[in-house]
Amino acid sequence: MRLMVVRRFGPNLAAIIDEQKATPRLALAKDADGFLTLDGFSRLVQSLQYFRDIAQSYHADPIIVRATASLRNLANQQQVIQEIQRQTGLEVVVLSGEDEAQIGFRAVQSSICLTQGWTVDVGGGSTEVVTFNEGRLVHQESFPFGAVSLASRFPVYKDLQGWIHQQFASAKWLPRMPLQGIALGGSARVLARALQEEMDYPLRQVHHFSVPTVVIETWLNNIATMTPDQRRKVAHIPKDRVDIIVPGIAIILALLQITQTDQLTISGFGLRNGLLLDYLGSEPAPVFSSIALNSALTVALRNEWPLHLAMHLQERVAELGQAVQSILGWTPRAVELARTAALLRYTGRNINMYHWDQHTFYYALSAPLVGLSHKEWVEVALIASYRSVKRLQKYWNPYSSILSRPELVTVRQLGVLVRLAELFSPPLMTGVERLNVQQSNKQLTITVSGTGISNPSKDLADVAKDVKKSWQLKLVVPGLIS
Fold first, then answer.
1. Separation between Cα atoms, residue 179 and residue 127, nearest integer Å
2. 1, pLDDT greater than 70
3. How many Cβ atoms from other residues are within 10 Å of residue 9's Cβ?
4. How far is Cα 280 from Cα 274, in angstroms, rounded to an integer?
5. What is the tens place of the pLDDT at every residue in 252-296?
6. Whose CA is closest to 2, among 185, 148, 127?
7. How many other C-beta atoms are found inside a 10 Å radius of the C-beta of residue 17?
8. Residue 275: helix, strand or coil by DSSP?
9. Which residue segment(s) compose the domain that 391 sits in?
10. Same domain, 154 and 229
């Protein structure tokens, strides 16, 4: 069970301000006839009362309660729902397996750039599998087993492994050798955190963490032989997951093997995020067509720095980026990453105006960004905080296992782009209406036009040196620098 408290601050825009979890293990709290036991009901009500009290302390309204297989599979479902409302005042709506799959998929769709493949959401009592093509849902299926229900049923890993493969073997709708395999839910998140701990992975973000199938297979074979206490101490698995992690990951691994998927991507966004999207609705349309840009905009909206300045800088980066893209051999995605970084450029200034770059870098790495691979995430943070090549090197060093040194060349170029765009944007320069960019004979000429243009920043000469070293172009701004 999980609680998510959200603050809404605009159309389609919300921020998660608190999260809590409880583990009543309802899949194991049924009698032989499928009725929820009195002890199980007592644990459920206690958890709901705890969640309700937290929500009310925030003055949250409405309090939305949705249930999945834990209540969906109960023989006395209606009786349980009525008694919950009587004792807690909370109205529970039970989702169908189809609804659960669609809502979870929508969360993934909103936070990862999808092409073709499948998603799996392993719950306690059910598993939802969705296939997609060109980012759109193609097929969905809810399987009546999950991490909790299988843990007590199959104490021997080999028996569990064979049984799960049998369940998926007849699913002819599953794609073979897909481009993407994505897992969401508690088991997937625990897997990501455990592997990151084992690898000493520098970016501690679960969302969009990717791992080869062969690594998962080796890891699962290893922990399957451990005692619960060893899993907690050696494999970094939380205490409330040590007894159910093996079946949870076995379900995911079976799908990877049957579909011949080489790599798994973890989604930190799941059912709760999908429910939030449903509540927020789809109108008005997002500002950008890019998932990453909309994500950065949401982060910028939460920042105290004036949003119009961040938006203006993003627009100037887009203008200059498109003008020099072909000259420097950048991809459209590279310019998009620079625009994303521009929206985050000022986030560190609220913490410290003098060391803003350091705070911007770590803020960007910690912010709830989506639509970015982990390599792109580090790139965006480095671009957003770019101030000099020396500082760039310093911030990059701990993340060199994610982003290689040759890739740092383009990152620096994009950092220079943001820095250059900043000089032609308010508050450093006002009155600029248009930039005319021309390149010839290793010279980049930027002609500034507008009304009431303010004096240029004293940093223009310094940025010109950066352009010369990074872009291999001499910067000329008629009337300002030659």
1. 21
2. yes
3. 11
4. 10
5. 999 999 999 999 999 999 999 999 999 988 666 788 999 999 999
6. 185
7. 11
8. helix
9. 291-429
10. yes
